[in-house]
Design goal:
Number of domains: 1
Oligomer: single chain
Number of strands: 4
Structural class: mainly alpha
Shape: globular
Largest sheet: 2 strands, antiparallel
Radius of gyration: 22 Å
Strand content: under 5%
Order of helices and strands: HHEEHHHHHHHHHHHHHHHHHEE
């Protein structure tokens, strides 16, 4: 084996070993808590109960309900039929596969920028991504977030660069399973991707109508009653809620936050986040565009649990890419920012504070920072993540008909580009 390849292999092995030890030390086993709720709700439904009447008592939040749309419930039906252990194993294996596949997609441009083999960028990134708290809690609680992430990234990093007519199907399905990904349909619209927008919206509507045909009672109950009952989704002041609403709820506890204040902040963040995401996409940086959209969705949602916050991953990779393209002085600031953001993602919220509800307004700066770490990091990235001003460019590759889209990775200022011109990378190499 050539020396460079051997060094890379040893580096990957060392990274895996260190990440494995850290994962073991930081992991908090929640016994598939959320997955057990899904399974119990499905069994209740299959036995003749009304899906949205299911309620599981909870010591902290009173009662916990099935809160996903009926289309998601239909997809989860096998959970009510399989043995418990089989459900645990299948969901975990699927989540790990989704993390691996999405890591392959988001590291393609990074490999090209660093002139490294694709396997090397993937091998370094995968254990580091598995280590962050959003992924740890997804595995621990038995959540479905990575399936939704995979659908969205399939559209934006695989199908879109190939100009596939199926672009938008993944986002549409994700929006039908859970409402928050619908913001990506708005992102497509603002980026003037008309066909993808229509496909995504049509898929979401079609999946919802299909669920209505199969489960009309559950559909009527969800869209006309359960969706609007804010008590069903959990306490907004719960520490694990890392949205703007969660931050405001902890500041005003035990009283609810001012609704007008929250809506005003949410609208402002949505406008800024989507504006910057659109600029990034039009500048050719799809990774930054989708990261900003995902972070914005998390901030403006009434409840965003820590396991929803995968979008730190593409944001941090975008920071690293911007650092590679920046001039020497600015480069280190971008890389230090990426390292600091990653450290926050690893330490997270659950590791350092309890997950209880707020009995009083958050006391002191230290506790405020700890209990709102992901909210503050999301805000910082939405406002400060470098967005290229360079127009989208297509660069001939080996095989010009491959449909692969290349983008210019650069810091916002033209002076940040290397002396030999802008660095060009592929959005997603396959």
């Amino acid at each position: 084996m050539p020396q460079p390849a051997l060094r890379r292999l040893l580096t990957v092995v060392a990274t895996v070993a260190v990440a494995a030890v850290a994962f073991y030390l930081l992991f908090r086993w929640q016994r598939f808590f959320d997955l057990r709720i899904y399974i119990s709700a499905e069994k209740w439904w299959l036995s003749g109960g009304e899906l949205y009447d299911f309620a599981q008592p909870d010591a902290l939040q009173g009662k916990l309900y099935f809160t996903y749309p009926p289309f998601a419930a239909l997809l989860m039906t096998p959970l009510g039929l399989l043995p418990l252990g089989a459900s645990f194993a299948l969901l975990t294996a699927g989540t790990l596969a989704a993390v691996a596949v999405t890591t392959w997609w988001v590291t393609g441009g990074l490999a090209r920028l660093t002139d490294s083999p694709r396997w090397y960028a993937f091998g370094l990134a995968l254990p580091l991504i598995l280590l962050i708290e959003p992924i740890r809690t997804t595995l621990s609680f038995g959540q479905i977030n990575m399936y939704l992430v995979a659908l969205i990234l399939l559209d934006l990093l695989v199908l879109l660069p190939r100009n596939s007519r199926f672009t938008g199907v993944g986002i549409g399905l994700a929006a039908a399973i859970k409402l928050t990904p619908a913001l990506f349909i708005v992102y497509l619209l603002l980026c003037r991707r008309t066909r993808a927008t229509v496909t995504a919206a049509g898929t979401a509507i079609g999946a919802t109508l299909l669920a209505a045909l199969i489960a009309p009672t559950a559909t009527r109950e969800f869209w006309f009653a359960s969706l609007w009952d804010t008590t069903r989704v959990g306490r907004t002041d719960y520490t694990a809620n890392q949205s703007l609403n969660g931050l405001l709820s902890r500041l005003s506890a035990p009283e609810p936050p001012d609704t007008a204040l929250w809506l005003g902040l949410a609208v402002g963040v949505a406008v800024v986040g989507l504006w910057r995401a659109t600029l990034a996409a039009r500048g050719g940086d799809e990774l930054t565009g989708l990261a900003l959209t995902g972070l914005t969705a998390g901030l403006i949602s009434p409840i965003t649990w820590v396991h929803h916050m995968y979008w730190f991953v593409p944001a941090i990779i975008a920071l690293v890419c911007a650092g590679i393209a920046a001039r020497e002085g600015r480069r280190w600031w971008l890389w230090v920012s990426a390292a600091a953001a990653y450290l926050v993602c690893v330490i997270g919220v659950d590791t350092v504070v309890d997950w209880g509800v707020a009995q009083r307004p958050t006391p002191g700066v230290r506790e405020f920072l700890l209990r709102n770490a992901f909210v503050l990091l999301s805000l910082a990235l939405v406002l400060l993540l470098p967005v290229p001003r360079t127009q989208n460019r297509r660069v001939p590759a080996d095989g010009a008909d491959s449909g692969e889209t290349f983008i210019v990775v650069s810091a916002p200022d033209r002076d940040d580009q290397p002396k030999n011109g802008p660095i060009v990378r592929s959005v997603a190499e396959s």
